[in-house]
Amino acid sequence: MSEISDNINNIRKLKSEAAKRAGRDDCTVKLMAVTKTRTADEVNEAINSGINDIGENKVQELIEKYDYVNPVNWHFIGHLQTNKVKYIIDKVCMIHSVDRINLAEEIDKRAKKSNRIMNILIEINLGREETKSGIYKEELYNFIDDILKGTDNIIIRGIMCIPPRFDDKECSRTYFKEANKIFNRLKKSFPNDERIKIDTLSMGMSNDFEVAIEEGSTIIRVGSSIFGKRNYR
Ligand SMILES: *Cc1c(COP(=O)(O)O)cnc(C)c1O
Q1: pLDDT (tens digit per residue) in 42-96
Q2: Helices vs strands, H then E, count in the chain
Q3: What is the mean pLDDT of residues 131-147?
Q4: 137: pLDDT strictly greater than 90
Q5: Is the shortest distance between the CB of 121 and ligand 1 below 6 Å?
Q6: Cβ 57 under 6 angstroms from ligand 1
Q7: Whole-angstrom Cα distance, residue 183 to residue 97?
Q8: 21-25: which pairs have CB atoms within 8 A and are 24 or more residues apart?
Q9: CA 170 to CA 113: how far, in whole Å?
Q10: 30 forms bridges with which residues in the sheet?
């Protein structure tokens, strides 16, 4: 057993225990492996250990690795420049970081050209941090309105958030609780719409995924706990 596969098994165990504590079925929470700075070989190792969902936050890295990685669901999770949407539109199953109408419109335009429908999440900046992307929560319903009016080939599937970073993972809990509240309200607001099917709450990373699961996450994005500390060159 390699280290990557040991780490994945360990996270699976913690994930399932966290789900149990919250009275949730473990299979309602997906484990995404975040592969930034990792080689295609490392990504394939994770896939061989049963990972079905891969997250990348840089377009350049995604397209460099894409052809060398075994078939898998790719997610785009980072800040996305509009002029780069065209490079990933055929490669990813979901874009987690939609936070501006011109980005949604570009995704729509490229999706149409590729004859496909793109799943998106709206990124919310819950900590109102200036350095982070994402809309403010009070902008959410207007933003959704704009997306539904201005696009055709997009399905809104939920929200994504990255709370402020704390050493104590318990500090993230308030933010996760709030995200879950917004998520549940959205589900109620749009019970029956083809363009907005709310089923994804993307939250929780290496340092806080257990708390995120306890508070309702449906997909956790885990990088360094699977692959080790990142080395940015
Ligand atoms: C890097 C990254 C992660 C994973 O972070 P780790 O702390 O390494 O688990 C999750 N989400 C996003 C958006 C990221 O950029």
Answers
A1: 999 999 999 999 999 999 999 999 999 999 999 999 999 999 999 999 999 999 9
A2: 9, 8
A3: 97
A4: yes
A5: no
A6: yes
A7: 15
A8: 21/214, 22/213, 22/214, 22/215, 22/216, 24/213
A9: 45
A10: 219
**pTM for this prediction:** 0.97
Contact 203 CB / ligand 1 (< 6 Å): no
- Reply yes or no on whether the pLDDT at 1 is more than 60: no
Amino acid found at 44: N
Tokens found for residue 139: 């902008």
Burial (CB count within 10 angstroms: exposed 0-12, middle 13-18, buried 19+), residue 13? exposed
Long-range contacts (CB closer than 8 Å, 24 or more residues apart) made by 102-110: 104/146, 104/147, 104/150, 104/151, 104/154, 105/150, 105/151, 106/82, 107/151, 107/154, 108/150, 108/151, 108/152, 108/153, 108/154, 110/85, 110/86
Nearest one of 12, 15, 66 to 44, comparing CA atoms: 66
Q: Residue 196 in 3-state DSSP?
A: strand
> Which residues make Cβ contacts (< 8 Å) with residue 19, sequence separation at least 6?
25, 26, 28, 29, 213
Rounded Cα gap, residues 93 and 76, in angstroms: 8
Position 175 pLDDT exceeds 60: yes
Which ligand 1 atom sits nearest the alpha carbon of residue 96?
A: 13
32 lines ligand 1 (CB under 6 A): no
